[in-house]
Amino acid sequence: MSNGAVQNIRGVVGETLMEAAVDHQIAGIAATCGGCCACATCHVIVSPDWYDRVGPPGPMENDTLYFGAARRPTSRLSCQIDLTTALNGLQVTVAT
User: Fold this and answer.
1) Domain ranges in the chain?
2) pLDDT tens digits for 11-46?
3) Structure pTM?
4) Could you give the residue ranges of the DSSP H alpha helices within 26-85?
5) Contacts (Cβ under 8 Å, ≥6 apart) of 79
6) Which residue of 23, 25, 32, 61 could cross-link 57, Cys pair, CB 3.0 to 4.6 Å?
């Protein structure tokens, strides 16, 4: 959460992390563009322990992060992270 509190949520395999965050009303995830990779209002910082499993941003996401967010080395847009069983336990911080 953006206030530093830890919150565990459950997502569904096949949905995005952004969708799960919106479903659980996670503070700081506005998802203004609805998952179109255009606004960076779902920007999260992936825990370094998880970044290799999540992977780096693609070209469009990279551009959106460059122009619309206070980017960090493990920044991702949660709308571009598809939930899989391999990501069970994923840890992220909402970017502020």
Assistant:
1) 17-94
2) 999 999 999 999 999 999 999 999 999 999 999 999
3) 0.92
4) 48-54, 59-68
5) 16, 17, 18, 19, 31, 33, 35, 36, 37, 42
6) 61
